[in-house]
Amino acid sequence: MKERLLAAVSGARSSYAEIRVRRVWSSSVLVRNRAVEVAGSATRIGGVARAVSPDTGWGVVGFTEVDRLEPQVSLAADLAAAAVNRRPVLLAPIPIRQLELADVLQDDPRATPLSAKRAIADRLSAVIHDFDRRIVESRVLYRDDVVETWLATSEGAWLHETRGETSLSVLAVAREAGNLERVLGTWSGKSAGPALDGALPALESVAPKAIERLHAVPVRPGRYTVILDPAAAACVAHRIVAHLGRTTLPGADPDALPLGLRVGPECLTLGDDPTAEGLRGSAACDDEGTPTRRTILVQNGVVTGHLTTRETAARTHLAPSGHGRAGSLHAAPAPRAANSFLAQGAGTLEDLLRGVGSGVYVSDLLAAEESGGNLTLRAGSSRAIRNGSLAEPVKGVQLEGSMLSLLGRVEAVAGDFTWDSSATRCRDGAAGVVSVTAGAPHVRLMDVPVSEGMP
Amino acid sequence: MIERLLHAVAGRVAAADAVAKADDTLTVSLDDEGRVTVTASRSEVSHLRIAGDGKVAVASSTDPSPLALAEQALADLPEGEDLTLHFPAPAPLPGVMTRSPQAAAAGPETLLSMLRPLAGRLARTNRRVEVWAERSLGLVRVGNTRGVLAEYEVSTIGIGTMIESIGAGAAPPCRLHVAGATMPSMVEVETLVTEADRRLAPPPVESGALSGRMPVCFAPRALAILLLPLRAALLGHEALLGRSPLRGRRGEPLFDRRFSLVDDALVPARPGSRPIDDDGVPSRRVDLVVEGRLAAMAADLRIGALAGVPSTGNAWRQAFGPPRVGFTNLLVRAGDGDRAALLAPLAPGLLVEDLEWGPGPNPLPGAFMARAPWAYLVEQGEVRGRVESVSLTGNAFDLLGRVVAIGSDATWVGSWCAPSMVFDGVGVVVR
Question: Tell me, what's the ipTM?
Answer without folding.
Answer: 0.82
